[in-house]
Amino acid sequence: YFTSVTMTATGVATTPPDVEIPGGLVLEVAFFIERPQSHFRASQLLRENAPEYPRTKDIDNMLKFVMDALQNVVYVNDTSIWCIVAEKAYVEDVAGPCTKVVLKRY
């Protein structure tokens, strides 16, 4: 997964990160996680008592992973990140599990 994030970022990065970006960056990350089969009935309908939000995987660990994968690919050092907005949710469409990242100037 780390290599996948890094390779994807490398394909999107427009310039190599040889200098710090002045003014800092805002990192927005959304983790879309697949629901376990235990959340569904045999008919594939969602159970009434299925949790609305993921309770597994700590978002701070997931976020650190993404930040490390982007370092030296999109930015020189993750100390350039001044603001973070992060969320995790269950996938509700056919797109499947994914991580969406938006990086912009602060």
Give a written overview of the molecule.
There is one protein chain. Helix content is 22%, strand content 25%. It is α+β, with helices and mostly antiparallel strands and 106 residues long. It has a 3-stranded mixed sheet with strand order 2-1-3, with helices on one face. The longest helix has 12 residues, at 59-70.
Q: How do the strands of the widest beta sheet line up side by side?
A: 2-1-3
The largest pleated sheet is described as: 3 strands, mixed
Indicate the overall shape: elongated
**What does the average pLDDT come to?**
81
Helix content: 10-25%
What is the SS-derived class?
Answer: alpha+beta
- What does the radius of gyration come to? 17 Å
Give the terminus-to-terminus CA distance: 27 Å
As a percent range, the share of strand residues is 25-35%
List keywords for this structure.
106 residues, elongated, 2 helices, 22% helix, alpha+beta, 3-stranded mixed beta sheet
Topology (SSEs and partners):
Elements: H1 2-12, E1 25-33, H2 59-70, E2 81-90, E3 98-105
Parallel strand pairs: 1-2
Antiparallel strand pairs: 1-3
